[in-house]
Amino acid sequence: MADPIVHMENITKHFGPVIALNGVSFDVKAGECHCLLGDNGAGKSTFIKTMSGVHKPTSGEIMFEGRKMNFASPRDAMEAGIATVYQDLAMIPLMSVTRNFWMGREPKKGFFIDFDKANSTTMSEMKKMGINLRSPDQAVGTLSGGERQTVAIARAVYFGAKVLILDEPTSALGVRQTSNVLATVDRVRKSGIGVVFITHNVRHAMAVGDRFTVLNRGKTLGTAARGEITPEELQDLMAGGQEMAQLEGSLGGTV
Description:
By secondary structure, this protein is of the alpha/beta class. Helix content is 34%, strand content 26%.
């Protein structure tokens, strides 16, 4: 079995007297979609920001490709190969798809931006993700929510992400847009990138996930592989509707 790209071991994060993460262990392998599920207040946002270098853990270790890492900033994490697509997408609606795709990393021809290369690359990378743009010059604000998610994902993949963290990518989307984003996640996973899919929607997690970890009040309640747990059991675990002992068998003893 392949070694994890990222392995987080016994991570804690304190904000003064508040314990946001309490002994969280989590990993993701190449070509795998590992879903992290939890309700509001479970600690998902703190987890994302700790893995991606926004927060330094109070204790615990983060290993990347077998090396211990101490990310000082999100840039350190990005340079290592951890890319995060947040819910707000960090896009400028009135700017073109191309400008949002490159966002400060535009190819140059002499002193000027090479728009021919920038536009053609944007179109081809979006096509790989299943999106056929009318024009790379169209404002990104004219795209659907699912298409904007795909721009952000394609951008991260193109610039060398080895691990892609997706923060609730389907939370504000309709049925068709959600389906498109889930298909994009599947393409990314099959390309060999490790995907961390953060969600509170069990159905969406089950559609793309290889493994599932449930977070509750800063603690992991268990990890199960596809086929080891039903959607109903996963939903009950998220909601706290079953005792840990009852689920221990279905989670392979990992609770």
